[in-house]
Structures are given as structure tokens and as C-alpha cells.
Here is the input.
Amino acid sequence: MQYAREYPTCQRNKLENVPPPGLLQPLPILQALFININIDFIEGLPKSYGKEVIFVVVDRLSKYAHFMALAHPYSAGKCL
Here is the structure.
């Protein structure tokens, strides 16, 4: 590891072009339910009634969560 730190080619080609992180910005205050949501998929579950994926929708204001069981492979049409 010391060799890589001191090797001239590694030092010349080292990528340090990442800008410094900025200040944290506050999130906007939400005004209505289900205007701003988070979605996620939980995969890798054992099959139950032919379903093995859980589609999760969470409202950011109320923290209300809705879970839908899906069969794999799934598409957006099956989620609606």
C-alpha cells in the first residue's frame, strides 16, 4: 500500500476532483398528504401465495405506509 501512495504514476493520475460537500439545506415544509412520497421495493423474500416482492409507498408528511405484494418479475402496470 505504501508503494502505491508513493509511486509517481499513481500520484499523477489520482482523482481528487470531487467538490467539497456543501451546507445542509432544510427540506421544504409539506402542506398536504400524499403530495410528496417515498417508494421502495423489498426483494429476496420467500414466496408466499406466489408473491415475493413488497412495494412500499410512504407519505412523507403523515408517515403513513402502504404495502403491496408483487410477483417477480413485476412492472409498473401491476403496481397500479
Notes: The CA atoms of residues 1 and 7 lie 10 Å apart. The mean pLDDT is 83.
